[in-house]
From TrEMBL, chain A:
SUPFAM superfamilies given in the database record: P-loop containing nucleoside triphosphate hydrolases
Pfam families documented for this protein: ABC_tran, oligo_HPY
GO molecular function annotation: ATP binding; ATP hydrolysis activity
Protein name (record): Peptide/nickel transport system ATP-binding protein
Biological-process GO terms, alphabetical: peptide transport; transmembrane transport
Compositional bias annotation for Basic and acidic residues: 437-449
Gene3D superfamilies linked to this entry: P-loop containing nucleotide triphosphate hydrolases (3.40.50.300)
Superkingdom as given in the UniProt entry: Archaea
Region (Disordered): 1-22, 422-459
UniProt source species: Halobaculum gomorrense
NCBIfam families the record matches: oligo_HPY
Keywords: ATP-binding, Nucleotide-binding, Transport
Source taxonomy: Archaea, Methanobacteriati, Methanobacteriota, Stenosarchaea group, Halobacteria
Sequence similarity: Belongs to the ABC transporter superfamily.
Matches recorded under PANTHER family: D,D-DIPEPTIDE TRANSPORT ATP-BINDING PROTEIN DDPF-RELATED, TRANSPORT ATP-BINDING PROTEIN
TrEMBL record, chain B:
Domain of life of the native organism: Archaea
InterPro entries per UniProt: AAA+_ATPase (IPR003593), ABC_Ni/Peptide_Import (IPR050388), ABC_transporter-like_ATP-bd (IPR003439), ABC_transporter-like_CS (IPR017871), Oligopep_ABC_C (IPR013563), P-loop_NTPase (IPR027417)
Signal sequence, renumbered to the chain: none
Topology of this chain in the membrane: Peripheral membrane protein
Domain ABC transporter residues, every copy: 20-353
Lineage: Archaea, Methanobacteriati, Methanobacteriota, Stenosarchaea group, Halobacteria
Reaction(s) the record says it catalyses: Ni(2+)(out) + ATP + H2O = Ni(2+)(in) + ADP + phosphate + H(+)
GO terms (BP aspect): peptide transport
GO cellular component, one term: plasma membrane
Pfam families on file: ABC_tran, oligo_HPY
GO molecular function, one term: ABC-type nickel transporter activity
Protein name (Swiss-Prot/TrEMBL): Nickel import system ATP-binding protein NikD
Length: 459, 424
């Protein structure tokens, strides 16, 4: 670690570490690393569930490779339920990983016991989203700050630790005399400052910040972001910044990892990612961010449906059920947009969302004909986006047959019938992680030159 | 209106009468240490078919303002002053018939007298409200040849509970931040929407207690008008397979779908005004984009005005026609959305925009506003932003800031803005 000190970034005026402009964290040493990290939560509550194998597993983090380099800010961004917080906690061993490894400066710290983990706790600290919930309301700020010092043997005496606490408070922009106050006597922004001071109390190398500014108002959020940036320079910290807010990412991060349904789908230096996205999910996510400047608004990509359940994630590429760039099979005769519409119908049928009985009831209530043919036509009309007329004839027939099968109660046959004409390499094969550009990774068939299916030709 | 107003109204952009006119609204909460002035004074207007934004940080009083508009401020909170005028000729006729004792006629001459006495009053509604006797809340400004009310407004603030119940859900409805907490977990989504329809629209289905109990126990008839309307509404907010999903309970919906269902419920009676209080704050950004698109489309489809309350400047910039910026109980700036973000004038708005991280210009430094939102208990200084304001001077703490013209239909309440002669 001898040479790493030189990479300590000076306070960057752009809000990022100084080397960000050159994008040169590629050569920096890795501090914290996840290697195929998995965290599954078992849903089986009782011993009977366990014996009988009942209950599914929530695959919150599913095979994540990630490295945090010295002095950088790495943002992990994703929507709620994508597993980003679990990832952060698994890295800190707050959740025992169920697979894979976590390494701190090359040393395996996966699943260490509390006692063995202790020396590493002084190096890896965490900041939480809700500052008040993460501060003990019955302790003064002084007690909150000196407790971790005591555990880790920092400071010679009680008085020394108290002095350090006062000093820390000033470093995070509070006043030394606040040392005897209780957390609830502070405003939200000030509480978050206390949370940061506590993380810094043990002089860590790495801070994992889980949505540290999401609960704060913008004017206060900007204060905290600035503070984190100053402290990062001052203490030579490596920062893992977990957030859902892409505007914040743009300002604080050197690199970004985009997460979807337990997997990292793309990593890239921040500026490069905002310039071009190699994964359609990153593209959609970015396009959805509202913008103040009218000139900066582009076409919004509207994603289909909702995030699937992590208990039973889609096969192949996990994003394929919602992807706007889903790849048609090689023998597809129409354009990609037509395929996407038909594929949406297939996904809806497969997920069990199409209900012929409810459709029949509705037609009856409206006084419309409600025989089997009418119900099948109604299903197609409401569950297929657009009109079936401009689909290839073989596909149209398959859709109509599937609708008839659904009405007849043969859901399994309907699913099979649709699968026979509407298959996608995105569903059949899991995309490999490729490196389309230096220091970037993406897991999408479209960026993989060796991938199956037709390459992007539709746009 | 019968005659041309004699003085120029700064609030009134364009030729149409506003649907909602809020003047001098004041809402207070008594606490042990004094009085919290959650809304100190607020003026606001919304025209038909407009999306108006109300943007502010937490503690700015924006949600209390919304509750005041609906007459649902929780005790011990109380709306102590001002007028909330809902202008609609059908509404005035309906209420004049239903509450004959509460009608008062105001003539242009009366209003002119009031205005001469109190130059601070700028809006018709505020002037008219000073003439109201006890219990009067239906203001008739002109009548047709048969003596039926032709123009006027209903003052929601003075309306009794019976009148409010007619208004809420029918004429004014609201969408909240957390749809899970605002839906009944024991009723299916379809049934909740159908219930609203039965209450406010004449579909010939009883809303008596026995009828409700029967529906609760044996389930609602799936061939009734109300149920059919519920499914149509779910379809209008683009819930796929609406007829099947109507049978689901709220917890079976995802967050985004729940919010859609809330919007469906709010729009089911085609209200004149929809108040959306942080409707997308709890949602993911891709879902937020869907809901905002939805709201804009529905506004046109149902001819509803929307008051969008949010802390998110970018959401306001993308969705709203006009914007009001609120800080510590006061509206400090109002302008058309494009104008406001291109040319912010009030120091608070400027600070707020400068502290918002943007996706588009990463090189702009984000500059925080120093300090915190003040405690609203008996605020001792005139301009509530003065202690945090980089430009404040002594007089800012002592003199109430008035609204000054700072651009095309653009006003800011700051002593240091406006025409050079008036500027501090």
């Amino acid at each position: 670690m001898s040479a790493d000190g030189d990479q300590a970034p000076a306070a960057g005026s752009t809000g990022k570490s100084a080397n960000a402009s050159t994008g040169d964290f590629a050569d920096a040493e890795t501090v914290l690393e996840a290697d195929g990290l998995e965290k599954y939560f078992s849903q089986s509550d009782s011993i009977f569930d366990r014996l009988l194998g009942g209950g599914g597993k929530v695959r919150a983090v599913d095979g994540v490779d990630l490295e945090l380099r010295t002095g950088e800010t790495l943002a992990v961004v994703g929507e709620s339920g994508c597993g980003k917080s679990t990832l952060g906690q698994a890295l800190l061993n707050l959740h025992k990983p169920t697979g894979g490894a976590v390494r701190y400066r090359g040393e395996d710290i996966t699943g260490l016991s509390g006692r063995d983990m202790r020396p590493y706790r002084a190096e890896i600290q965490m900041i939480f989203q809700d500052p008040l919930a993460s501060l003990n309301p019955r302790q003064t700020v002084g007690e909150i700050l000196t407790a971790p010092m005591e555990v880790h043997g920092i400071g010679d005496s009680k008085a020394d630790r108290r002095d350090r606490a006062r000093d820390l408070l000033e470093r995070v922009g509070l006043e030394a005399r606040h040392v005897d106050r209780y957390p609830q006597q502070f405003s939200g922004g000030q509480q978050q400052r206390v949370g940061i001071a506590r993380a810094l109390a043990v002089e860590p190398d790495v801070i994992v910040a889980d949505e540290p500014v999401s609960a704060l108002d913008v004017s206060v959020q900007a204060q905290i972001l600035q503070l984190l940036e100053d402290l990062q320079a001052e203490f030579d910290l490596s920062l893992l910044f977990i957030t859902h807010d892409l505007s914040v990412v743009r300002h604080v991060a050197d690199r970004v990892a985009v997460m979807y349904l337990g997997e990292i789908v793309e990593t890239a230096p921040t500026d490069a990612l905002f310039e071009t996205q190699h994964h359609p999910y990153s593209e959609a996510l970015l396009s959805a961010v509202p913008r103040i400047d009218p000139d900066a608004r582009g076409g919004r990509i509207v994603l289909e449906g909702n995030v699937p359940s992590p208990i039973n994630p889609p096969e192949g590429c996990r994003f394929h059920t919602r992807c706007h760039r889903v790849i048609p099979p090689a023998d597809w005769e129409a354009d990609q947009a037509a395929f996407r519409r038909a594929f949406t119908f297939r996904n809806r049928v497969e997920s069990g969302a199409v209900d012929p009985e409810a459709a029949r009831r509705r037609l009856e209530a409206e006084g419309e004909p409600s025989d089997d043919d009418a119900v099948a036509a109604h299903l197609l009309e409401t569950s297929l986006p657009g009109s079936p007329s401009d689909l290839p004839s073989a596909t149209r027939e398959a859709l109509e047959e599937a609708a008839d099968l659904l009405v007849a109660g043969d859901e399994a046959d309907a699913v099979d019938r649709l699968a026979s004409v509407l298959s996608s390499p995105c569903q059949d094969e899991t995309p490999a992680v490729v490196e389309p550009d230096p220091d970037r990774t993406a897991a999408c068939h479209r960026t993989d030159p060796d991938a199956p299916g037709s390459p992007p030709a539709d746009d | 209106m019968a005659t041309e107003p004699p003085v120029e109204r700064p609030n009134r952009a364009g030729g149409r009468d506003p649907l909602l006119e809020v003047g001098g609204l004041q809402t207070q909460f008594p606490v042990e240490r004094g009085t919290v002035e959650a809304v100190a004074t607020a003026d606001l207007s919304i025209e038909p078919g407009e999306i108006v934004g109300l943007v502010g940080e937490s503690g700015s009083g924006k949600s209390v303002l919304a509750q005041s508009l609906m007459g649902m401020v929780e005790a011990p909170g109380e709306v102590v002053g001002g007028v909330v005028a809902l202008r609609d000729s059908d509404l005035v006729r309906e209420f004049a018939a239903a509450f004959p004792d509460a009608v008062t006629d105001v003539s242009e001459e009366d209003l002119a007298l009031v205005r001469a006495d109190e130059p601070a009053i700028t809006s018709d509604a505020e002037a008219a409200a000073t003439l109201a006797g006890p219990g009067e809340f239906v203001f008739v400004e002109s009548r047709d040849a048969d003596g039926d009310p032709e123009a006027g407004f209903v003052d929601v603030r003075r309306a009794p509970e019976a009148a409010l119940q007619r208004l809420r859900g029918g004429r004014i409805s609201m969408v909240f931040q957390d749809p899970m907490n605002s839906m009944n977990p024991t009723l299916t989504v379809g049934e909740q929407i159908a219930e609203t329809v039965r209450l406010h629209q004449d579909v010939g289905e009883s809303v008596s207690l026995p009828a409700e109990l029967k529906r609760k126990i044996v389930g609602a008839a799936k061939n009734g008008e109300a149920w059919r309307r519920a499914i149509e509404m779910l379809e209008a907010v683009e819930i796929p397979e609406a007829e099947a999903r109507a049978d689901d309970f709220p917890h079976e919906f995802s967050g985004g779908m729940r919010q859609r269902a809330m919007i469906a419920m709010a729009l089911s009676c085609e209200p004149d005004l929809l108040i959306a209080d942080e409707p997308t704050t709890a949602l993911d950004v891709t879902i937020q984009a869907q809901i905002l698109d939805e709201l804009t489309a529905l506004k046109d489809a149902f001819d509803t005005s929307i008051l969008l309350i949010t802390h998110d400047l970018a959401v306001v910039a993308e969705t709203c026609d006009r914007v009001n910026v609120m800080y510590a109980g006061e509206i400090v700036e109002r302008a058309p959305a494009d104008e406001l973000f291109a040319n912010p004038q009030h120091p608070y708005t400027q600070g707020l925009i400068a502290s918002t991280p943007r996706v588009s210009n990463p090189d702009d430094e984000i500059e925080p506003i120093q300090g915190n939102v003040p405690d609203l208990i008996d605020v001792p200084y005139a301009c509530h932003f003065a202690p945090r304001c980089p430009e404040s001077e002594r007089e800012c703490f002592e003199r109430e800031p008035d609204f000054r013209e700072v651009g095309e239909s653009h006003e800011a309440a700051c002593l240091r803005r406006g025409p050079p002669g008036d500027r501090l």
